[in-house]
Amino acid sequence: MVQAYILIQTEVGRASAVAEVIAQIPGVLTAEDVTGPYDVVVRAQAETVDELGRLVVANVQRVEGITRTLTCPVVHI
Predict the structure, then answer these.
(1) 7-67 maps to which CATH number?
(2) Measured distance CA(4)–CA(7) in Å, rounded
(3) Is the dihedral of CA 15, 17, 23, 25 positive or negative?
(4) Contact 66, 60 (CB under 8 A)
(5) Residue 32: what are its φ and ψ, rounded to 5°?
């Protein structure tokens, strides 16, 4: 299982709506509004890195109101 944090910037005033939509996507564990340089932080999981990439590109990035994403895979060192 691969997990990642997805840091999301949204259009002004859209963070809450974006987080609500993303929280419903299969593979998303949490989606929370935050303050700082990013507006929403998502924790997601998938079976493989490729599947995680598809989750981000095909599902998360298509949500209305998102301007930028940064995917940070979790590593176990």
Answers:
(1) 3.30.70.920
(2) 10
(3) negative
(4) yes
(5) -130, 140
Element containing residue 49 per DSSP (H, E): helix 49-54
What are the CA-CA distances from residue 47 to residues 26, 41, 54, 59, 65 (Å)? 12, 20, 11, 16, 27
Q: Strand 66-73 to strand 2-10: parallel, antiparallel, or no bridges (unpaired)?
A: antiparallel
Amino acid (1-letter code) at residue 63: V
Q: The whole model's pTM is what?
A: 0.94
Kindly report, residue by residue over 7-46, the tens digit of the pLDDT: 999 999 999 999 999 999 999 999 999 999 999 999 999 9
The distance between the two most distant Cα atoms of the chain, rounded to a whole number of Å, is 38
Tokens representing 33 are 């509004």
Q: CA–CA separation, 21 vs 16, rounded Å?
A: 9
